Amino acid sequence: MANTENAGSTADVPPVRYRVSGMDCAKDAAQIERAAQAAGVAPGDVKVSAATHIMTLTAPEVRLPDIEKAVAVTGYGFDRIEGDEDIPPNPAHQDPAYRRALWIVVILNVGYGVLEMIGGFISGSQAVKADALDFIGDGAITFLGLLAIGWSLAWRARSALIQGIFLGLLGLGVLGTTIVRVFEQTTPDAGLMGLLGMIALVVNVVSVLPLLRFRKGDANMRAVWLFSRNDAIGNAAVVIAAGLVAWLGSAWPDLIVAFGIAGLFLHSAWAIIRDARGDLKATA
């Protein structure tokens, strides 16, 4: 258990911000927070945002070197932001090739998402519909992230908040419609379902290819690549579910995948909204 008895009062201590490089998700943020708490920082005095990759730390200046050493053990990079300066934009974000890669992701995701949604209704597959929403959501979020390049911390946090709310609404929509389908138990067209899933997998692979050269960039760049890669795994799940539907003659594999996608939406939305609200409070 972290020892916070000797941390002292931080009521009059101004917070210090660090730009964190190398983290990709809320799990990474929690790991960093635990490392700081193990060094004696009270839970309420350290906040790591998975949305904007900022660590806000409230601790006496004399203790910062020890805390910095403790969090550095996690393997992530920490660059202190001096005074009221905002985070300098990462030069790689200004790379025209990176912007073009993001535009490819946006166009492919939104374009195929619309087509897959139509196919989902034709096939009667809830998993395909959920996957289509995933495509459309990823495209919209990537577009918003593209617009946010170079924005201030506060506006990036607002952008993240919008992303989180959007994901949450998608998750609730998928969850609600899937629950309805549980009671209807209509077996989808496994052949069309599998075909759409395989095409979705190809589209995601094509989306990933332009991002490969950026997968070792900063956390934001790696996150976009990881999201596309994880989506490809989800597409494979749809294909497998289609095979199980054909084999078992049951709608349950289709519904289980749809529930899984809904859960992923809601989990991601919760983490993004939580972090974005924290960042907005920090910049108020």
TrEMBL record:
Claim: Ion transport is one of the keywords in the record: yes
Q: Where in the cell is it found?
A: Membrane
Lineage, top-rank taxon, reads: Bacteria
Q: What is the protein's given name?
A: Cation transporter
Q: Tell me where the transmembrane regions lie.
A: 101-123, 135-154, 161-180, 192-212, 232-249, 255-273
| Membrane disposition | Multi-pass membrane protein
Q: Which GO terms describe its molecular function?
A: metal ion binding; zinc ion transmembrane transporter activity
Q: Which residues form the Cation efflux protein transmembrane domain?
A: 102-279
- Can you list the GO cellular component terms from the UniProt entry? plasma membrane
Which Gene3D superfamilies does the UniProt record give?
A: 3.30.70.100, Cation efflux protein transmembrane domain
Q: Identify the keywords attached in UniProt to this record, alphabetized.
A: Ion transport, Membrane, Transmembrane, Transmembrane helix, Transport, Zinc, Zinc transport
Q: Origin organism of this chain?
A: Haematobacter massiliensis
